[in-house]
Amino acid sequence: MSFKTDIEIAQESQMLPITQVAKTAGVDEQYLEQYGKYKAKVDYNILKDKASAPNGKLVLVTAINPTPAGEGKTTTTVGLADGMRRIGKNVLVALREPSLGPVFGVKGGAAGGGYAQVVPMEDINLHFTGDFHAIGAANNLLAAMLDNHIYQGNALNIDPRQITWRRCVDMNDRQLRNVVDGLGGKVNGVPREDGYDITVASEVMAVLCLASDINDLKARLARLVVAYTRDGKPVTAGDLNAQGAMAALLKDALKPNLVQTLEHTPAFVHGGPFANIAHGCNSVTATKIALKLSDYTITEAGFGADLGAEKFLDIKCRMAGLHPDCVVLVATARALKYNGGVPKAETGKENLEALEKGLPNLLRHVENITQVYKLPCVVAINRFPTDTEAELALIERKCRELGVNVALSEVWAKGGEGGMALAEEVVRLCEMPNDFRFAYELDCSIKEKIEAIAKRIYHADGVTFTANAEKQIKTLTELGYDKMPVCMAKTQYSFTDDQTKLGAPTGFTITVRNIKVSAGAGFLVALTGEIMTMPGLPKVPAAERIDVDETGKISGLF
Fold this sequence. Notes:
Layout: H1 6-12, H2 18-25, E1 32-34, E2 40-42, H3 46-49, E3 57-63, H4 73-86, E4 91-95, H5 100-104, E5 112-113, E6 116-119, H6 121-125, H7 131-151, E7 158-163, E8 167-169, E9 179-181, E10 192-194, E11 196-198, H8 203-210, H9 214-222, E12 225-229, E13 234-236, H10 243-250, E14 257-261, E15 266-269, H11 284-293, E16 296-300, H12 308-320, E17 326-331, H13 333-339, H14 352-372, E18 377-382, H15 389-400, E19 405-409, H16 411-414, H17 420-430, H18 446-457, E20 462-465, H19 467-478, E21 486-489, E22 509-518, E23 523-528, E24 547-548, E25 554-555
Helix pairs in contact: 4-17, 7-8, 7-10, 9-10, 13-14, 14-15
């Protein structure tokens, strides 16, 4: 039996003009800036005119720790939104933009899959409306102004050995992780060690996704710490007078992008900070506009719930004053069997013993959502044809023991129709009162916040801080950066900082080796394990399968 690929399904769909989608969403034409027939930006000033409108319900979609067997978080998010519309609800979906690096690397596209996608799929996965290019340009303008300041006499007394701002490019390119630049004589700059991050790891991306308007954007950009002086004082983008020019590059990128699902549900796709480095959520602006325009906003956070949901709840919700009404936790029987020790190639076979061994990964995430954050939760099983009734019954029974319902999600094959059962459960949970709370309080010390996340969310025994991290904590506390939330940079594949430890490990500690301030974004980043800010391409990158014919039709995206 042959299945159509995601791109084939997307290309066969009949999209509505974006003006019609905007009308469905309640976006007046005065706020709409069209990018062709099927894409548009929405002016964030719509929020001022909608200020008195009540907010709809906020639904977060998250998942178990990702595995090669697949989970389908974005697919479930899109299909749930379509399912909500099918049961008569006024709903909008708010997603992140894909990064070119993973698209051409190993992950492929990030616009959903099967019959639960946002379209135009090719545009969204490639250049879209140019937001990422603008972010890269703003990031690199700041880098150029920083190095130029040093070259032109260094009036700020910047220590070239303590430059923390790196250039970026939106591509997986391991060759650029560590470089030496400024070579070729005095007129070509000051030689120093340098490096590149992928654009989605740039703090400018995080700033854009957390900024509320152009003035807030400029204020956040001005606070970006780019280096330290020879006597240890932070140097900011504001000290270099860079924030105005950076904001000029970002003024259009700040406006959320409006597209549609295959079933014409309006969808905001805006921003995309990496979830294992930054906070991994779409823009606050897009989420807030969606809440004002709809009765239900379905959004997602990056990677597993220990990273994505934790950062959505502890960072984004705290900063934006958001109160979630329900959490959907996506899992597959295949991925749970993988967590139970089954090789990827054998995850399609019934194996109740392996499923039982892998289930603690799901149950720990459920317990975190319901017991730590005190939020209603439903487990969405993204059903595969190979799943057996016995496997599904086992998952349902174990979740019910924690007081959580399970809903089958068949949106990949059936679109919104396959998400109606999940939609009904989400509507029910959204009516339940909840006592939402954070995993830690801001007035705790840096160490206490990191330990709270490690112990309460990862279920670690404790945290080991390297000598370097201890020194950085002391310095950041003295500089007054200690009252910010903490953004953990950790592998997405495990609750631990060791990606090989699957399931729900116990008896481990988390090692924090580096802590840096993202003063513009407004959080501290604690790096654990071997987290990199510039991925590499795999042995056979997805780029080798992507092509375009003489009519402009793209193939190979998935």
